[in-house]
Design goal:
Elements lengths: L1 H19 L4 H10 L4 H26 L4 H28 L2 H25 L10 H22 L4 H12 L3 H24 L6 H21 L5 H23 L3 H33 L1
Protein name: Probable membrane transporter protein
Keywords: Cell membrane, Membrane, Transmembrane, Transmembrane helix
Family: Belongs to the 4-toluene sulfonate uptake permease (TSUP) (TC 2.A.102) family.
Length: 290
Amino acid sequence: MGIFLFFLLGGCISVLAGFFGVGGGFILTPMLMLMGFSPLEAIATSLLFTIGTSLSSIIAHIRMKSILWKEGMILGISGMAATQIAKPFVFFLESKGWDELAIPIFYIFLLAYFALKMLKQGKRNQAKVKVPPASTSIIKMILIGLFAGFISTTLGVGGGFIIVPLTITFLGIAPKEAVSSSMFAVLLIVVWGFMSYAFTISIDYKIGFVLVAGGLIGSQIGVRLIKYYENREISLLLGALYLATLVSVVMKLVDLSYIGLILLAVFAGIFFIRSLIKVRVKKRLGAENK
């Protein structure tokens, strides 16, 4: 039963990961901490999971032809460089006994910032915005990649939950293309980040691979759901997901972990029901038009 629950957890998180282009780590890491994993165990396991979901999602995004390869490569390589700075920082926190408090607090500040960003973005009129000139956007992409890579290895996330909102708000990339390009950058970052931990942290590979197995299925579903949503809806939903995850981390700090788990489950349930309705409505309209 325990193995099946981890398989189901991996599948559900990866649907959200594939849809939002966030790798899934920023949801899985706090979930694992809520379930009793130490911060470092949660980080390493989450990075392993994100490798699997990213690979699966990228295949689907390639078919959709929505990846901006140059942007994804710049973001990914910048992020890979930053992972080497982050690893010593994480071990420093652990040596001082600060990791149990510092890592959740990092999450809270970042999630609060990006939740407000995406909710504000979703409320705007979605008139097309022009991408900044290449000479300036490359610098911004490098800075975004460096920041995402550092946070990825520090918090055990893919970096996508940082890359997606920042590329939308600061580079003017449309949400659907930001999601696709983010997955490519995330893969480069998490592979490098995971290798930083693989030989120094004890990882339960059995649980890790069960999570990945569920993720390989769920991520394909998540990517396919993108076509049923408008860019504005994606931004609003991503902001809501950040808020739900933020509250769950706060609940962990005040020893009310079960409330955080319930909140994330409620968000996932609403998202899945909404998506099912959208798929059925679109199929019915398609059948009527034939």
